[in-house]
Structures are given as structure tokens and as C-alpha cells.
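subagent[fold] <- orchestrator: predict structure for attached chain, return C-alpha cells only, no commentary.
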Amino acid sequence: MIASRDGGTGRRSGRLVPFFGDLGVSEITAGKIQDYRIYRHQEAIAKRGKPPGHSTMHQEIVTLREVLKTALRHGWLDRLPDFSEPYRSCPKISHRAWFSPEEYNELYTATRQRNSFTTMCLLQSKPDCDPTRLGA
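subagent[fold] -> orchestrator:
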């Protein structure tokens, strides 16, 4: 059973205990964890009109994982359940810059006098170029 300490407030007593409180640690399965995600989503929509934030859900799942890891170390579990989200979308949306052919020519013309600088600018302006792989 997931129990909080006396007077404990926080993730365990605030969100996890009301949902998992009557279950023994061996009864917490990957399916129950998915049910918890759905429950939290529906609860947040009902209360605030929007789902819980990605990092909030992540912190709650990490807290649950830590509780179950403790149970594993004590021998109360023989393995941890799967915590992965079944249909996880990327939480970070990134948009890469894109130059039109005219902008690319303008960049080339403006940097033509400095050979190594021109090469670096042209490489970084390519949409498929990863700036972290350039050996600046």
C-alpha cells in the first residue's frame, strides 16, 4: 500500500495516494499506471479545463517509480512495471529556420569575402544541418 508519512503533503499524498492508496505495491501494474494517467487527465480537465502539464505528470510518475523502486529493494516486488506512455508524443515542438533561395543567395553574397565564415554560414543555413555536429 502506498502511504504517506504523517502530515505529509506533496505528490504522494496529494495525487498518488487517493488513486493507488488501497492497492498493495504488487498490485500496481503497467495498466494501473496508464489508468492513473487517464484519471489525472480527466480530473484536470474537469477542474481547470486543461490537462496537467507534461512536467507535472512526469514528476508524479517519477515519484511513483521511486516508491516502487524502494519496494523492489525491500523485496516486496520482483520487478518494476513498465512506466512508458503507450502513445507518447514529443513534448517539445521545434521549428527549424528555412531560407528561401533568394535569402540564401543574399547570405552567400554578404559573406563571400570571408571564406571560412562563408562556409560556416552556408553550412548552418542548410535545413538538414545539425549545428551541434559542426566542428566550429
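orchestrator: received. Logging for downstream: The chain has two domains: 11-73, 101-133. The two ends are 55 Å apart (CA to CA).
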